[in-house]
Amino acid sequence: MIEGFETLAVHAGQEADPQTGAVVPPIYAVSTYKQDGVGGLRSGYEYSRSANPTRTALEECLAAIEGGTRGLAFASGLAAEDTLLRAVCKPGDHVIIPGDAYGGTYRLFAKVLSRWGLHFDPVPLGDLAAVRAAVRPDTRMIWVETPTNPLLGVADIAGLAEIARQADALLVVDNTFASPYLQQPLALGADVVVHSTTKYVGGHSDVVGGALVARDRGLGEELTYHQNAMGAVAGPFDAWLTLRGIKTLALRMERHCDNAEKVVDLLLAHPRVTEVLYPGLSSHPGHEVAAKQMRRFGGMVSFRVTGGEEAAVRVCDRARLFTLGESLGGVESLIEHPGRMTHASAAGSPLEVPADLVRLSVGIESVGDLLGDLTQALGDA
Ligand SMILES: *Cc1c(COP(=O)(O)O)cnc(C)c1O
């Protein structure tokens, strides 16, 4: 019985090609399939929006590494979210979302789906009593991110699953920040896992993609139907790149965590750093919950500096090995100023972030080089 995470990441959905023995699923750059007589489909393939063998390989692997019954691959994380929300919710339904939801997710609710009659409330998910109080008779879904972006807040997935169950609502976990290697939401009671596979799952900053993984077969069927009906699927080359990334996910995440822990130590000791946000710190308000539901604490680190916004921007500008850029989860280290970059659109909203905040996506480079670069970027005083 094969069930180790690393084994599944390398093999699930990836039998050697029956014709050639190729050990890696080929890129099936094809839209349609010859039928053996009308309706005589070979292995079920008919048209590549409905299914494509390269995408199938990725989808089976995603289901295996998240411990679900069905995995589905999309053109982006937001395409996956949109498909899920319109498959499951109808006008008039209510969704509880994180008080500090990913900006694109917030925008999808606030600017797109609200026009179609979906109601939502941002709630601080670290506070289970607040979530319980926000549940309404028409609440259809609780949408969770943990850890959150960029403040690294932590929510108790098992506790939220219990609230969702009592409310007859679905629990959806955006597992992008943790990755399936560090956190398994379906085993903690979630119904659906969402990923921006653009981030850790793909892991090499070379492809945009998204995924849904359902725990139950019935919901998996429903989502599969909508994936085809709505059509925002991953193309074969994108699916292939993502599958290639998954093979090393466990190795990469261990190194991301190793390096992040050393970066945290450096920042904690630095006179110009006023606060370090990392769920691995025992001083972090969500540390105990994170320790319960995560294998390790990930590669994302945020910190605040003395000197306010100008100083934070200067640190970002001075970094050299840490590349100044948005996104996260790739092998290369990134640095950014959330207030002016990823979270600029949140200014003046409840999602506004501190101006002196810097966010790091710690990569897998030699840690001495990363520490050296941060030291020079932080400067003296
Ligand atoms: C990037 C991201 C998304 C959106 O995914 P895209 O692939 O950019 O569409 C959703 N959730 C989180 C937590 C993200 O970081």
From TrEMBL:
Record flagged with keyword Transmembrane helix: no
UniProt KW Glycoprotein keyword: no
EC number: 2.5.1.48
Pfam families: Cys_Met_Meta_PP
UniProt entry keywords in alphabetical sequence: Pyridoxal phosphate
InterPro entries the record matches: Cys/Met-Metab_PyrdxlP-dep_enz (IPR000277), Cys_met_metab_PP (IPR054542), PyrdxlP-dep_Trfase (IPR015424), PyrdxlP-dep_Trfase_major (IPR015421), PyrdxlP-dep_Trfase_small (IPR015422)
A cellular-component GO term for this protein: cytoplasm
Coiled coil regions in record: none
PROSITE patterns: CYS_MET_METAB_PP (PS00868)
GO biological process: one example: transsulfuration
GO-annotated molecular function: cystathionine gamma-lyase activity; cystathionine gamma-synthase activity; pyridoxal phosphate binding
Names of the cofactor(s): pyridoxal 5'-phosphate
Top-level taxon of origin: Bacteria
Sequence similarity: Belongs to the trans-sulfuration enzymes family.
Annotated PANTHER family: CYSTATHIONINE GAMMA-LYASE, TRANS-SULFURATION ENZYME FAMILY MEMBER
Protein name: Cystathionine gamma-synthase
